Amino acid sequence: MIFFGAVVTLIQLGGAYLRYLPFRRELTKREVAELRKRLLLWSVAGFALNVFIAADGVTYRAYKLALLPGWIPYFLLSLTVIRNKLPQNIFVLGMQCLWSFTLHAFAGMGVALIFGAMSEEFLLEQLSLYTLLLIALLKVEIKFFVNLLPTPKFFEDRALKWYVSLLPSAIFIGASISIVEVTFLPAWQEKFSRLAFPLFFLLIYRALSISTHNVTEIQRQERRTRLLRQQTDSLAEHNALIRKSRQEVADLQKRLSGNYRIIDEMLAEGKISAAMDFIRRQGNLLDATRVETFCDAPLVNAAISIHFRRAEEIGIKIRHKIDLPAQFATDESDLAVLLSNLLENAINASKRQPFDARELSLIIRHDGSQYVLEISNRYDFPIKIGDNGLPYTAAIGHGFGMASLELFAKKYDAFINFEHEKNFARLSLYWRDNISGARNIS
User: Fold this and answer.
1) pLDDT tens digit string along 369-402?
2) Which tens digits make up the pLDDT trace of 216-238?
């Protein structure tokens, strides 16, 4: 009884571990520790329950009552930590069940080959062999389950995500209906025939998964290249504007001596009013050559300058309040890329507005170790909001702004809020300086 309870508990913990692997990269250390604590605490109660189930002996009934529903508490406990990902969790559960089904079938056939039959008296041997297979294949299982989830786009569509998430479970249920009967185990020949379909599905899915991940990586590289090109173009445009302004200043400086002579002549002739008007005109010419500086960070300043100039050219009224120190911990290129994409989105949205209803506001504040970024623009049309709370579009070539935002938020553990109220779309972002990212999101 004790051995049965221990082995079944170990099998259930192994299943919970495999279901955790696809989400490992997304969980913080605190969340991983919390999940581990909850699962281990339940495993103590689960062990006692498994021993109780086997109180009358290790029978077919005890075997199936312990294994078939035993995953439920572990799965529900995982949902309390891996939140807001129910379709993904259901998909992973179905795949783990198919893998468990496959290992059980191989363990049963192994027992039949070793002992000549797979009967009730060899249930402990079958469980032991299953556990050995689970441990022996751990490296393969880790590699498979870490990369198990398909591209996130499958889970962004509200209808498609449930078809995708329920597919493995539907296959598992179809393959396991015949073993729900708690009074017997099928012969090993029947196990082998039932094994073929889940195993075929796992192999096909793995091949498709590798292909989709490769396509996703290619798209990610193309997006990064496009972001870098956009940033380079903005910097080049900003530098050209600075060079033009410097040339205009140089030309004015060459004319200064002549201007001084003109002013001197006007003053000598007593034309004070004309001299003052001439001086004001020269001041206006100098102002026209000025490039506005929004902050001391050159990349961020270039991103803001270029997009504000584009916005003004199409009649967008701009309000801004920018307060960034000369030096800050957030990678300047990351912030510049983010601003470029978000401002580009806001400007493109504003183009749909009537000319007299184009407004854009940008606020960037740095207070100690905290950042607040807010971009809002007038938008009188409906906006589609995804499950992540952010706007989305299915149009080809669009969506890079939100992709850039999600990468930035993941790297700096930023809080994002988007709202569309009273015909204003407003995106707010909050993060802290003490988050250090290892990768450049551009």
Assistant:
1) 889 999 999 999 988 887 677 887 654 444 556 7
2) 666 667 666 666 666 666 666 66
Taking only Cα atoms into account, the Rg of the chain, rounded to an integer number of angstroms, comes to 33
The answer on 43 and 172 residing in a single domain is yes
pTM over 0.85: no
Residues 6+ apart with CB under 8 A from 120: 58, 59, 60, 185
Q: How many residues does the chain have?
A: 442
Element (H, E) at 299: helix 298-313
What is Dmax (Cα atoms) for the chain?
124
| Nearest CA among 425, 238, 415 for reference residue 348 | 425
C-alpha angle with apex 187: 183 to 190, nearest 5 degrees?
A: 115
Q: Which of 186, 218, 242 is the last residue of a domain?
A: 186
> Considering only 325-334, 348-357, 389-398, which range has the smallest mean pLDDT?
389-398
Structural domain includes residue 254: no
Burial track 75-92 (b if 16+ CB lie within 10 A, e otherwise): bebbeebbeebebbbbbb
- Per-residue pLDDT averaged across 129-152, rounded? 88
Q: Total structural domains in the chain?
A: 2
Domain C-terminal end among 120, 151, 186: 186
CA 398 to chain centre: 17
